[in-house]
Design a protein that fits this description.
The protein is an alpha+beta fold. The chain is built from 17 helices and twelve strands. It folds into four domains: about 40 residues; about 70 residues; about 130 residues; about 240 residues, MetI-like fold (Orthogonal Bundle). The model has no long low-confidence stretch (mean pLDDT about 90). One of its GO terms (cellular component) is plasma membrane.
Amino acid sequence: MKDWIKSGSPWIWMTGGAVALAVLSVFFVLWMTAAKGLTHFWPKAVLETTFRDGDQQVRVIGELREAEEVSVRRLQEAGFKIDTSEPFVDRVLIKLGNRDLTGQDFRWFPRPLLGEFSYPRDILTVERHEWGNFYGHLKAVKEGDQVVAEGPQAWGELQARVQRAQRLFREILRIEKNDIGDVNYRMEQLRLRERKAQLQGRLDEALKAELAQQRAALDAEFARLQERLQTLREDIGRDALVAEVADGRAVEVKLALVADVYQANAMSTADKIVHYVRKFWEFLTDDPREANTEGGIFPAIFGTVTMVLVMSVIVTPFGIMAAVYMREYARQGPLIRIIRVSVNNLAGVPSIVYGVFGLGFFVYVLGGNIDRLFYPEALPAPTFGTPGLMWASLTLAILTLPVVIVATEEGLARVPRSVREGSLALGATKAETLIRTVLPMASPAMMTGLILAVARAAGEVAPLMLVGVVKLAPSLPIDGYPPFIHLERKFMHLGFHIYDVGFQSPNVEAARPLVYATALLLVILIMVLNLAAIKLRNHLREKYRGLESV
């Protein structure tokens, strides 16, 4: 027994079991997140049934989302009249849609009070830009006040007119975001130019006339775009569909509000696969809508990647320089030991504390002074004196700086002393030895520090809520306007998007699948960034493997 324990066999088994348990836990989390998130894009069948509400039979149309077992007493206390000797029965959650008509999007129904489920092929699922999904039996398609198709011919006519409406919607969106946005940007630049000239005492009559001429040209261009927009809005508001909802009413839905329409019950498996791929692509590339509970998350993906890249550019050189100084140049004594202890302790400081520091120092002190020195014409509106991408990246750089310093120091410590002495013996200076020999050999450890920093920074939310992240950003931090990278702008972030949709959404049930889908995407994004860094680290490790054996 003593020999078995001395051999280390139990510790090997315990270590292997712990590793296996950790791997299984990671796979379970990923599987659960993927199962609940990726199924959101599959077209759901729409059922039709009846509900016994007291002495009345009410028709119900919607998507079956969940089912669970509850006690009969609990349902009876809630006012449901259920006659059964069973202590427990099932209840189902049905997405009713039509929130603008009924005031509710989801509702739980006791299964014993529901009739048989049927799945009529003519039921429409209409995804709208406002008010969520709409469900109903398609009855007719209208152009203005005239019915242009009804009955079996209505579906084909509706598809063609929905495509037309979507083309017009994209044209309207392009004019509003790009063309009118460009005019507004140039108008603002004229205003800032005029204000700057006024502050500098250069606003003479010639400059005023030049600015007035340019402003008049922009006003004319803006009026032309507004006229074009009015024409497009009239065109897109021409068509409508008429559908019969659950209570028997014939409801008219303008195609200008329709983001997508399909008959899920009539779709084949191939149609559903095509629909799934299209919806998933829209999720990755579109802007959010309906308080972030629908649409895509592209601005959040873009903001997360941009912030991580800017943070990496900031934290890597500062972390490496600090580690090099403490390991290679500083006199090893009590002061350096205190600094090392402080660096290690900084890694355990709650992230929200860094957010408060970033808000107080970076935003109010640095940003406010930058505005007064370089952007006086924009005051009192702040430019850098407000939370933005730059301050968020700097805050996370300070948060992850201890990780990079510690990892780099460990890498420098593993470089054999004989390598340094051999380089110096060949006539190289200490700086040349450090730059050409020591740092390349320690580069895998530096990459390890960067990997850990990226993994932590990409998932942080608390400090970002104070220093730059917003629920919905009007524009991306990178665009076609000089200086092209706008570090002063607020941005969206996947982590904050998960928090906002999951806990601040007015429609929690509708937002829940998007929470899982966004969480899975955040994990995948972190994995991609880390794998890229790991590949570079492995390349560097192989490149300098020969030197390590010297």
